[in-house]
Amino acid sequence: MNLTPEIIMLLMLDGLFLFFGTLAFVLSLRIFIAWDRNATTKNQYQLEKNAYLVGIVVKYILMLKVPLFLFFIYTCDTLSSIITGAMCAAGVVNSVDFGLFLLLFKLLNLYLFGFWLLLHSNDVRSEVQPYMRAKSFFFCGIFFVLVAEIVLEILFFTSLDISKIVSCCGTLFSATEHTSFSFLFAMDERVVVAIFYASFTLMVVGFFLRNGAVYLFSNLLFLLFGIVSLIVFFSTYVYELPTHHCPFCLLQKEYYGVGYGMYTSLFLGTFYGIGGVLMAHISAKPAVKIMRLSLLFNGIYLLLVSAYPLVYFLKNGVWL
Questions:
Q1: Residues 6+ apart with CB under 8 A from 128
Q2: CA 65 to centroid of chain Cα atoms
Q3: Most buried residue, 149, 154, 269, 290, by CB count within 10 Å?
């Protein structure tokens, strides 16, 4: 393992997350077991203080995890300069067998912590706090996903071998090579792009009809095909190379870090879309404001990725 300052910082923060996450887990478990809003005992008063502490801890973890996800990608990108064959973060992540799973766990935790905070914010607005036991049980489940991510991250950095020759992103995201991402290129890019735009259209329809099920489904579809279409189609116009499909190189300074804006808008859009619909279902109240935010951020993502092929065609008169 090569301990760079970035890796040391990430591992130290993992230790903090594990400590505070364990504290929140123990307190949440106590709240779930013993919470009784109608009780006037000393124990109930202590549980109410514990619930307030859990809320602060989860906010603290999420506030750090959002920028740290991007910092993790940045760290992998810097490591590509010392790992033979790696050209960007893609080669570093793929150099360890479970690197992709670590990335997925990081994304999953962002959504789960965000959903918990949505539930928490709705809970504290009410004097009776109707979701106290539900959110406590929910966090107990999230805790194990957090621990899995931390363990995977520690194993990831300890398993990195700088003497190992790895595949570059051009090989990993290639239609002609047999890699873990090859299945993406088995799909017709025109079909992928069509489903991407259709999912956004369906989202708009679901918004105006105030149909939660349609809006939830369209957001899930938009998240999936938003990423797939970016890899197989839109990224080639950012790079202006028909063979370059890497989703990580979008974060590099050569492309003005446009990937940060793309991924942030996609995350916020789908997070508000999925979380807003779920909260509306739980609370039996409309979530028009949250759905509007979702539509805004998803629309920004759509405009960002669509601008590149459109500008390329206007400049050159042809498609890639």
A1: 37
A2: 10
A3: 269
Are the C-beta atoms of 251 and 77 separated by less than 8 Å?
A: yes
Polymer length in residues for the chain: 320
Q: What are the boundaries of each domain within the chain?
A: 1-163, 167-319
The Cα 56–Cα 194 span in angstroms is 43
Element (H, E) at 318: none
Q: Looking up tokens 């369209």, which residue turns up? A: 218
For 119, residues 6+ apart whose C-beta sits below 8 A from its C-beta are 131, 134, 135, 138, 279, 282
Angle (CA) 47-50-51 rounded to 5° is: 90
Cα–Cα dist 50/204, whole Å: 41
Residue carrying the six token digits 């935010």 = 293
Distance CA 238, CA 222 (A): 20
pLDDT tens, per residue, the chain with 320 residues: 678 899 999 999 999 999 999 999 999 999 999 999 888 899 999 999 999 999 999 999 999 999 999 999 999 988 888 888 888 888 898 888 899 899 999 999 999 999 999 999 989 988 889 999 999 999 999 999 999 999 999 999 999 888 888 877 877 777 666 666 666 777 889 999 999 999 999 999 999 998 999 999 999 999 999 999 999 999 999 999 998 999 999 988 899 999 999 999 999 999 999 998 998 888 878 788 889 999 999 999 999 999 999 999 999 999 98
Angstrom distances, CA of residue 217 to CA of 104, 119, 147, 182, 273: 20, 20, 29, 26, 10
The pTM score is 0.92
258 contacts 170 by C-beta, under 8 angstroms: no
